[in-house]
Design goal:
- The protein has 105 residues and is an all-alpha fold.
- The protein has a single domain, classed as Tetratricopeptide repeat domain (Serine Threonine Protein Phosphatase 5, Tetratricopeptide repeat), CATH 1.25.40.10.
- It contains six helices and no strands.
- 32% of the residues are buried.
- The model has no long low-confidence stretch (mean pLDDT 87).
Length: 105
């Protein structure tokens, strides 16, 4: 399958467990292309909140923090009562963490 077909197949998944499985499969089967494909999913207007959350989790694990936060923001905007709001809050608190003792040991 082409990259666009993979993205199109994943975008419309509404069930959280199936979205998680599809994103995990994408990352496992195409590790080199996964970050760019996940970023494309996040940019897609038709992506469901469940897919955005799972893409955000995968992007976070891949070290793409900015893309992950974008995914959480889009999912939280589409479904304010969903898990993305909490993920966004937690991610922001992690990013805001500052320990002055680490700078001057």
């Amino acid at each position: 399958m082409t990259e666009q077909q993979n993205i199109t197949d994943i975008i419309g998944i509404a069930e959280a467990s199936k979205a998680a499985e599809a994103v995990r499969h994408l990352v496992a089967s195409r590790p080199d292309e996964a970050p760019s494909m996940l970023a494309a999913i996040v940019r897609c207007d038709e992506a469901t909140p469940q897919v955005l959350v799972e893409a955000g989790k995968a992007l976070w694990r891949l070290g793409r923090r900015g893309d992950a936060l974008s995914a959480y923001e889009r999912a939280a905007k589409a479904d304010p009562d969903g898990p993305a709001s909490l993920l966004l809050e937690h991610s922001n608190s992690i990013m805001d963490f500052f320990n002055p003792d680490l700078l001057n040991p």
